[in-house]
Amino acid sequence: MTAPLRIWAVSDGRAGIEAQALGLAEAVVRLRPAEIDCRRIAWPRWMRRTPTQFIPAWPRLLARGGSALSPPWPDLWIGNGRASVPLSIAVRRWSSGETYVVQLQDPLRPPQVFDLVAPPNHDGLQGPNVFGITGTPHRVTPELLATELAAWRGRLDGLPRPHVAVLIGGRAKAFNLSPARAVQLARQVSEAVRASGGCQLLTFSRRTPPQAEATMRTVLADVPGLIWDGEGSNPYFAFLASADVILVTEDSANMPTEAAATGRPIYLLDMDGAQARKQRFHAELATLGIARRFEGRLESWSYPPLRETDRLAAEVLRRMDERSAARA
Q: Which of 12, 163, 225, 285 sits between 20 and 30 A of 85, alpha carbons compared?
């Protein structure tokens, strides 16, 4: 019998970055027996803003305070985030080319220094070893949604339909949520939910500015539904599973992609700021019939649930098999 593949999902441990690498690793496991090992990198503070091309050629010696990085090297290395880039490049040399190296997002390095680069389509990166996807890899599956929903059914089943999931992000490179914008958003959500006769299922992220969160909680306090109080586990996935329609702020690539795994209508909520990359992403979602810009009304439509993580996993295995056959 063939031994299971050994996969390392390598990141700096930030939740959104790690979830992408783990999401792809788990998708590979759904297709082929494999064992996943999550490795986290912790660079010395003085290196954290150093451009990756200037990090010395022996980065493993400097990546201290994180997970052990030593042989035996994995069959498949999935790197994500800036911190992983120099190690992803180096592990091909350390493993004498035996480890297949996949780098997620745009590494801002020549794609040929990796075995495969898997950026979002809206990054515009191209090349023979580039495989673009809509949005980002993630861990959302029908099984995960069903499990999370079961844990919250007692609090969700009696709420009026439609269930309107409201996913609020926050500060990002090009975006922010000011108190004034938070008031405007909250009033739009309130009016739309009341007009629908349904309820809100609202959750905030770690990036939501405290003042904006407090403002939205105040404005939406008397709207039917649930606002997560921040205690215990986040009902984010349960809200996705239960939703008839989903409202999500425009700052994130992860949240709309995860929401698109449900096949439910998605509305994008305007924030303060703008970014060309996100505009291209939103245009792609609109072209696919997945998302629309929120203008205060709630409508219903459908589309095939987005399964880009599974498609990427199948491509990774295809290329690994192709390389193994060529070396045989």
A: 285
